[in-house]
Q: What sequence folds into this?
């Protein structure tokens, strides 16, 4: 496995399969009384977060702790540019404390890639700006695989603020690697520049897409968070109009085939991109995604930081015990 | 047209003033090729080109330089450089920037107004003028701000700066666009008595705000970098050429970066609008594909564009739609670049590499001959800046502001070896043609044998 996890594009289909298989093993320990594996005992993992995040940071923290790593959270928000310290200085300073891995979240695209070029330790991307969030894509794939089985040939629809979504970028890359079809749905204002050249279908029409008229029958739909501030930027008119055009309300829920789950990376804007009926329906796998997040991040740390080349389940990871 | 008698102090012609050093040394250049023509001998004496001819005798006390068939150009003139002084002397000073300029073949450099404090009054422009004279390597021509504090709200003291010892003729809020149409209109009108030009940084802040850092297109979308669309530049240029027509003023467009901008300027010129434009060497050579690794050494404003724009810019420079090459030399301390791409400072070093880049993309490709290069890098910039004594024909009696370049000598760019205090060059490791063998400022060698010649006596200072 590669030294870092920076982009979903870094992973071969085989490596994705290994991570997801390991995550299945890791997930099993959530049912145990003692949720602890020795795989990363004696290793130090720093969650270096330049941007606020509760769920991703907690998820990585739990993942590291269940693998017996020493996990330290460093909140570096506003520490570099505003205080005159360069990103390089901040990263090198933290890495100099004998750290084995940095899990990095930053508000600027490419920041994690830059840090990986400066430090000697492993680096895992926990979200860089509007670029990528590879562990989110892995946990989404894990969740989908549990519901749908192998994803080859499956059709996943991703809806919402695609321009500003690192989740969408990583998901397109990862799902395409796994042989799934992807359709992106958003108003033209929220479509990334040059999206026509992406390896997926795009549509402005959610109803037609869900009805299977754009790219065939739908196997899953992923609703992305839409920030209300986008209204002032002219990206859409009103919450009401957005919900009517691109929100997952009851009528659209009915368009989905029986087997298709509803995903959302959270936090949800209920009533905007997703109705409460959809969020709380049996189709919703939102909490499964959160649970999968811990297992997938354990698997990522296991492969990237411990350097394991085979799926977990080996005695070394203590999974079987 | 400028009404007669309206020009204060008759400064438009910018005669050589007594405190600008004039060399009494004599130099004979043997076998130099003016504008790439036939080899001749050129005698420099008393700051002037004294004589040109075959096989000139070496006068007593004259220094002999064997040009060996190198190309002799009028000293290059840069319309656009950031020398960072006062305010950011850790990134560049007037002295270090002047050294980079001389080594790059320049004899005159316009120093942009976005210093700290801003050059929006006579005191600051005169301070920069004095710093330039103290360095004594190139004529440093201060650019004045259009708006007070570059804030884009009210006019800077344009009249005072024009009438100062610095005799400012180029006004620019560069780094910021004069976005307000009313202020732009008034500024264009206000400049007219001074025969000055407004050099616009064309960037509609509504379409490309401060976060915009990458050409808006397939790559910015994929990399998740805030897009800087071509139309943010083109729409401002379109507005400004119409305002220029309406006011009968003079407009210069800074760092044109898109094919659409070239089209708008071509149209405006065809209608007789008094507009000129510049292009930067990096926009003639580099494309936005380089952003893939998120290295801010490629972060510049306006951003690097796709190959089709690069082609259109080269064609526009070749046919004269774009009048000038300007460096937009923008030194930055390492700690202002060691950030994520979006957080790092905009800017690329340019003074020492511009000539090599232009030779490689324009001369070696056959798009311009040496006379054409001299026109775009010296003659027209001097005219736009109303800078007398530079960009003149290479004939006897003209000021000896000259550059001797050997196009056959290629050199490799090593960031730490550049004269700038900063090292943010995107050309590290790149081989460029055209080594500058010598630069002469009013007959005195500022560069000889490819090395800087420090002033032998401190220049007289003060105004």
A:
């Amino acid at each position: 496995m590669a030294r870092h996890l920076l982009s979903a594009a870094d992973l071969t289909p085989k490596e994705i399969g290994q991570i997801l298989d390991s995550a299945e093993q890791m997930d099993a320990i959530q049912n145990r009384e003692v949720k602890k594996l020795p795989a990363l005992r004696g290793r130090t993992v720093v969650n270096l977060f330049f941007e606020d995040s509760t769920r991703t940071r907690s998820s990585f923290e739990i993942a590291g702790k269940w693998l017996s790593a020493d996990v330290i959270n460093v909140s570096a928000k506003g520490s570099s540019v505003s205080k005159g310290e360069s990103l390089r200085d901040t990263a090198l300073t933290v890495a100099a404390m004998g750290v084995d891995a940095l899990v990095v979240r930053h508000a600027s695209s490419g920041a994690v890639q830059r840090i990986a070029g400066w430090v000697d330790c492993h680096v895992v991307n926990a979200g860089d700006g509007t670029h990528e969030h590879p562990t989110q894509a892995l946990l989404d794939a894990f969740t989908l695989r549990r519901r749908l089985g192998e994803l080859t040939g499956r059709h996943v629809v991703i809806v919402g603020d695609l321009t500003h979504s690192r989740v969408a970028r990583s998901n397109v890359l990862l799902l395409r690697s796994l042989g799934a079809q992807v359709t992106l749905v958003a108003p033209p204002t929220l479509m990334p520049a040059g999206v026509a050249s992406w390896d997926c279908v795009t549509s402005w029409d959610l109803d037609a897409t869900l009805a299977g008229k754009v790219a065939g029958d739908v196997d899953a739909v992923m609703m992305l968070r839409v920030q209300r501030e986008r209204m002032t930027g002219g990206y859409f008119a009103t919450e009401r109009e957005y919900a009517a055009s691109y929100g997952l309300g009851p009528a659209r829920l009915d368009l989905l085939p029986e087997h298709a789950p509803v995903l959302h990376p959270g936090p949800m804007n209920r009533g905007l991109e997703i109705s409460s009926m959809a969020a709380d329906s049996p189709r919703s796998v939102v909490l499964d995604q959160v649970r999968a997040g811990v297992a997938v991040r354990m698997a990522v740390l296991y492969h990237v930081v411990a350097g394991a080349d085979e799926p977990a389940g080996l005695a070394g990871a203590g999974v079987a015990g | 047209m400028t009404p007669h008698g309206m020009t204060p102090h008759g400064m438009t012609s910018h005669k050589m003033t007594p405190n600008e050093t004039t060399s009494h040394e004599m130099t004979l250049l043997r076998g130099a090729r003016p504008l790439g023509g036939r080899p001749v001998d050129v005698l420099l004496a008393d700051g002037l080109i004294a004589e040109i001819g075959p096989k000139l005798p070496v006068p007593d006390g004259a220094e002999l330089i064997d040009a060996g068939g190198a190309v002799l150009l009028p000293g290059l003139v840069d319309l656009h450089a950031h020398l960072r002084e006062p305010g950011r002397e850790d990134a560049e000073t007037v002295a270090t920037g002047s050294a980079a300029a001389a080594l790059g073949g320049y004899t005159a450099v316009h120093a942009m107004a976005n210093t700290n404090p801003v050059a929006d009054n006579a005191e600051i422009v005169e301070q920069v003028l004095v710093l330039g004279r103290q360095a004594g390597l190139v004529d440093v021509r201060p650019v004045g701000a259009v708006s007070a504090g570059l804030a884009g709200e009210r006019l800077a003291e344009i009249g005072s700066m024009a009438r100062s010892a610095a005799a400012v003729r180029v006004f620019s809020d560069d780094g910021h666009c004069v976005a307000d149409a009313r202020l732009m209109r008034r500024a264009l009108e206000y400049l007219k008595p001074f025969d000055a030009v407004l050099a616009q940084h064309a960037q509609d802040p509504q379409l490309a705000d401060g976060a915009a850092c990458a050409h808006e297109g397939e790559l910015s979308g994929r990399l998740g970098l805030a897009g800087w669309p071509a139309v943010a530049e083109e729409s401002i240029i379109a507005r400004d050429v119409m305002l220029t027509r309406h006011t009968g003023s003079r407009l210069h467009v800074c760092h044109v970066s898109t094919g659409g901008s070239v089209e708008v300027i071509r149209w405006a010129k065809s209608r007789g609008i008094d507009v000129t434009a510049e292009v930067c060497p990096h926009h003639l050579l580099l494309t936005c594909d380089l952003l893939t690794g998120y290295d801010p050494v490629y972060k510049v404003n306006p951003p690097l564009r796709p190959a089709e724009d690069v082609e259109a810019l080269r064609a526009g420079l070749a046919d004269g739609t774009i009048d000038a090459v300007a460096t937009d030399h923008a030194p930055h301390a390492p700690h202002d670049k060691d950030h994520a791409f979006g957080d790092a400072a905009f800017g690329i070093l340019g003074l020492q590499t511009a000539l090599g880049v232009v030779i490689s993309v324009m001369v070696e490709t056959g798009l311009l001959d040496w006379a054409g290069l001299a026109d775009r890098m010296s003659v027209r910039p001097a005219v736009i800046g109303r800078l007398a004594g530079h960009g003149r024909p290479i004939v006897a009696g003209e000021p000896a502001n000259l550059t001797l370049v050997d196009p056959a000598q290629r050199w490799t760019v090593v960031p730490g070896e550049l004269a700038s205090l900063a090292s943010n060059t995107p050309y590290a490791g790149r081989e460029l043609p055209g080594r500058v063998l010598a630069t002469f400022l009013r007959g005195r060698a500022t560069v000889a044998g490819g090395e800087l010649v420090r002033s032998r006596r401190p220049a007289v200072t003060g105004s």
Observations:
- Confidence is low (pLDDT under 50) at residues 314-321 of chain A.
- Strands of chain A lie at 44-49, 70-75, 101-106, 122-128, 155-159, 181-185, 201-203, 220-223, 262-263.
- Residues 122 and 140 of chain A are 23 Å apart (CA to CA).
- The radius of gyration of chain A is 19 Å.
